[in-house]
Amino acid sequence: MLAINIVFTPICTAVVSLRIWVTLTSRCFGLEDWLMCIGALLNLVHNGVVIWGTFTGVGTPDSKLTTAIMIEGAKSVTFWQVFYVSGPLFIKASICVQLLRIANNKLCKMFLWCLIALTVLTTLAAMIVGLIRCRPLAASWDPTLGTCMDQSSLVILTYVVSGMNIIIDWSVAIVPVIILWNVQMHKTLKIMAKLVMGIGALASVATIVRLPYSAAYSKPSDRLCMYSKSFCKNLT
């Protein structure tokens, strides 16, 4: 996880920084750029939490951990969940807002607004459940401090949220292709633009690959070991 973080974090930071520089020098810094900046900052925090997790037992079997380290590892997972669901909200919203600028079809614009609303609702639902599933919140990483909801319910919610994210990711990847279909531009440039925008579909692939590891929430042991798979798939 640490190696993946070290490789991808600078790349993402460089890409976003280049985008900011281009929009600022072109004097066209807009709402979508603000949203992308917020999403990028949350992603940096997310990656920082992942690094924290690598030093607090995430990816390690329970047999090799002390109780204190397991509690600290569970705490890192709790905070990871918050930034895992919040960061993509702003990134997807940024893409949709940018597409709204170039879309000239009323149906496409309505669909994009629906995607934004669906993303917000899905994110809020996931965050609210994640924050209230244990009372007090500290019981999320130390069960002796309180009580938590049935973990099987959390697994079901994870599958539902993941399913919604897959739909949203594919929609965000396909809509640009539809919008650019009849745009007057060089054929090669149009193909390249569609390919670049279609890369967004890879996010849904990562979500699909991550689905089998959602069962980690209901495992009685070695949860931190299972969580590492989700951490890695989200980083890539």
From TrEMBL:
GO CC annotation: membrane
UniProt KW Membrane keyword: yes
This protein's record includes keyword Ion transport: no
InterPro entries on file: Rhodopsin_dom_fungi, SAT4-like
Keywords annotated in UniProt: Membrane, Transmembrane, Transmembrane helix
Protein's cellular compartments: Membrane
Domain Rhodopsin: 18-224
Membrane topology: Multi-pass membrane protein
Pfam families hit by this protein: Fung_rhodopsin
Segments traversing the membrane: 6-22, 34-58, 78-100, 112-132, 152-183, 195-213
Entry coiled-coil feature ranges: none
Family as reported in the entry's similarity comment: Belongs to the SAT4 family.
Name of this protein: Rhodopsin domain-containing protein
